[in-house]
Amino acid sequence: MTTWRLLLHPTPARGAWNMAVDEVLLEACGRGGSLPTLRLYAWEPACLSLGYAQPVSDVDLERLRARGWDLVRRPTGGRAVLHVDELTYSVIGPLDEPRLTGTVLESYNRLAAALVEALRLLGLPVEAQERAGGPNRNPNPVCFEVPSAYEITVDGKKLAGSAQARRRGGVLQHGSLPLTGDLTRILQALAFPDEASRQRAADRLLARATTVESALGRLVTWDEAAAAVRSAFRSALSLDLEPASLTEAESRRAEELAAQKYAHPDWIENK
Question: What is 2-268's CATH number, 3.30.70.20, 3.30.930.10, 3.40.50.150, 3.60.15.10?
Answer without folding.
Answer: 3.30.930.10
